[in-house]
Write a structure and sequence with these properties.
18% strand, five-stranded mixed beta sheet, alpha+beta, 18 strands
Length: 461
């Protein structure tokens, strides 16, 4: 998990009207957005030096905003600015309920845009005989890959391949939360599809539309000075409210609670079932919708292999999930020769829960997750309060001393220009975690050969 912020900017929603934000209001809103990142975004220097995106260089963005002709064009620019960070934890969301569904989803395989899912309730086979694996060549005359690159401007993952694959899934579904112009889609679109045999076929797919579109955010009045309106009509700039930081005994644990909330059309993203099938597989967990894991065994080349899929790191009850995982690990220790752990298309969740899961699979001490924190006064105050709570609750002296040392690191960084701390442990007060042990002190972690499956959508935690 990276040190980054998930930004949800819920704008004042006004039903469609002719009024638009003024250029000054757009500039003020954008400067508040940029100021949030300037103040709190930790990886700024890394993004600037490695990705060549300087979030503090506002001139080209301000020029585009001044020239923008509508609120929607302005929101596109805001979305592009945040997406330029190429950070799956950072996104600009519009407060719209509008979305349109054409009934299919796509993904990119070997450079081709292939159908990944077909909703047969919207696209009955008798009228739409194309199938999973057929290639989408174009939509409304635009080559499929060009459309994907256009959609990828507004939301990004950490690398270009994941970003394009993420955008590919919006070919058949347009959500204005992510794409400001989603509401401009027509009633139908022309899809040219290359069938498995190579023949090209053309289909008119209906867009099934839902919700209310956001078309403008105005008219929004300017704030007034105490002595009345500014004679030049200029808005009064207000600093954004400081970000709230939950107070816990270990304040950084709040960072581990981030969850990727982007709506995803990706097949099996976050689902219990794996994206592939396993021959001769005996299922243990996963048949029930309440199961937090998908587990079982199969035989390969005479070896009995265990399989545990962790679909996400946000179970309804962490305590219950970990008890169940302990049971599965005990079974796998006794009955398998090796273990496959599947976290493909896992959207992440609670990083500290993920670390607790790791303690079941790593049979020796390992380094904990740690953060370099962009020091703000809110973090310094949070650790001050944590130290006082620890003293009030008569915590052990070493715990108070560690919290104090972390606070000192934050204060030192806070005195610098955009100062970053050294690595601070995220989920505990120590820098090392031990495997889970039973009452006799014996590790219960899996100790036989183990392989972990990941892919381009193994995300966050």
């Amino acid at each position: 998990m990276r040190s980054s912020a998930l930004v949800l900017l819920f704008l004042s929603f006004v039903f469609p009207a002719a009024s638009q934000l003024t250029p000054e209001q757009k500039i003020m809103d954008f400067q508040q957005l940029a100021g949030l990142y300037v103040k709190q975004y930790g990886p700024y220097e890394w993004k600037r030096d490695v990705l060549r995106f300087d979030l503090m260089d506002l001139k080209p963005w301000l020029q585009r905003i001044e020239a923008s002709a509508s609120d929607i064009e302005f929101y596109e620019i805001m979305s592009e600015y945040v997406a330029s960070l190429r950070d799956a934890h950072a996104a600009y969301y519009l407060p719209s309920t509008f979305w349109a569904d054409a009934g299919l989803r796509a993904d990119i395989y070997d450079g081709k845009v292939l159908i990944d899912v077909v909703n047969r309730s919207l696209l009955p086979r008798a009228d739409y005989p194309f199938d999973v694996g057929d290639e989408i060549v174009s939509v409304d005359g635009k080559p499929a890959m060009d459309l994907i690159k256009e959609l990828a401007r507004f939301s990004s993952y950490a690398n270009s391949r994941s970003t394009l694959r993420y955008a590919a899934h919006w070919i058949g579904i347009r959500d204005q939360v992510i794409y400001p112009r989603a509401y401009e889609i027509g009633d139908t679109s022309t899809f040219v599809i290359r069938r498995d045999g190579g023949e090209l076929e053309t289909y008119q797919l209906k867009w099934n539309k839902h919700g209310r579109a956001l078309t403008t955010n105005g008219k929004v009045p300017n704030p007034r000075r105490a002595d009345g309106d500014d004679p030049e009509g200029r808005p009064i700039a207000f600093a954004p409210a400081p970000e709230a930081v939950p107070h816990y005994m270990h304040p950084l644990a709040a960072l581990g609670r981030n969850y990727i909330s982007k709506p995803m059309a990706l097949r099996n993203f976050g689902s219990r079932a794996p994206v592939f099938t396993i021959a001769n597989f005996t299922v243990r967990l996963g048949r029930s919708s309440s199961d937090p894991f998908y587990t079982g065994t199969y035989v390969s080349e005479g070896q009995r292999i265990g399989f545990i899929r962790i679909p996400h790191f946000s179970p309804v009850s962490q305590f219950a999930a970990l008890l169940l995982l302990d049971r599965e690990i005990a079974y796998m220790r006794q009955n398998t020769d090796g273990l496959v752990v599947d976290i493909m298309r896992n959207p992440g969740g609670n990083g500290c829960y993920a670390e607790e899961v790791m303690r079941r699979f790593i049979p020796r001490p390992f380094g904990t997750m740690a953060y370099s924190v962009r020091a703000t006064l809110q973090w310094v105050n949070a650790f001050d309060e944590a130290i006082q709570i620890a003293k009030d609750e008569e915590a052990e002296e070493w715990e108070i001393n560690l919290l104090s040392s972390f606070r000192d690191m934050l204060e030192a960084a806070f005195a610098e220009n955009r100062g970053l701390t050294g690595a601070l442990p995220l989920c505990s007060l120590g820098y090392e975690r031990d495997p889970v042990r039973d009452r006799e002190g014996t590790s219960i972690a899996y100790e036989k050969p183990l392989i972990v499956l990941t892919d381009e959508f193994t995300t966050s935690a």
